[in-house]
Amino acid sequence: MNLRSTIKSALYPLYERRILTHLDLTKTPHHIGLILDGNRRWAKENPSATGDTSSAHGHRAGASKIIELLEWCEETDVSLVTIWLLSSDNLKRPSNELKSLFTIIGQTVEQLSATGRWKIRPVGSFELLPQSLRDTLKVAEQKTAKVRGITVNVAIGYGGRLEIVDAVKRYISDSASIGKAPNQIAEELTVDTIDQFLYTAGQPDPELVIRTSGEQRLGGFLLWQSHQSEFYFCEAYWPDFRRVDFLRALRSYAARERRLGR
Q1: What string of DSSP letters covers 83-150?
Q2: Which of 90, 166, 205, 245 is catalytic?
């Protein structure tokens, strides 16, 4: 580590405390969505001690950051976090990479539930996932159902457009099952109706969506729910995302004037 890096490392804790001290927690978001991007690029630039630059190396590094993130959320009064761990598009990746990724995601969810600190709520199209991972998600959800801590939506096999299609299908199926005619089903289809059939039904929409790695797009994340969200794009790859980056995102959000269409 060079002198400049050493000085930065020494000063960052002071900088973090300053941001946190001046952060008005009454103006910080209650629900944050996070697109954890950049694991594979991070791995190529940061080989392990054995020279590993595989995607699995990056995904493991990214997974180890999640507990830190949730601790930062606890100290800033965030009550709901949606973390995108695997998109439906990611399922097109090579089978060997997916197998490793499924294992890492399963282990991560088990670690989160084992803390007993957070309520785990899986969201996504689970029929796209292997049965072993579906079982892990179900156990984690049941195990943490009565936990009073932060609710953590783990978005796995998730795609925003797919979620909307699934919601409309469920609404039509439920309506038809109680004998409603097609014209009545169409007439009763509203924004509020679709809200009730989303994966996140019953939860408030995210006020802030954070994406790491410098990419400035949603990529299909919470398409319906983020219609009035604020967005914050961070240059750091997800494994390099620091507490100071998180606090900067909250500071940026708190400084914005949210008119919400008014």
Answers
A1: EEEEETGGGGS-HHHHHHHHHHHHHHHHHHHHTTSSEEEEES-GGGS-HHHHHHHHHHHHHTTT--S-
A2: 90
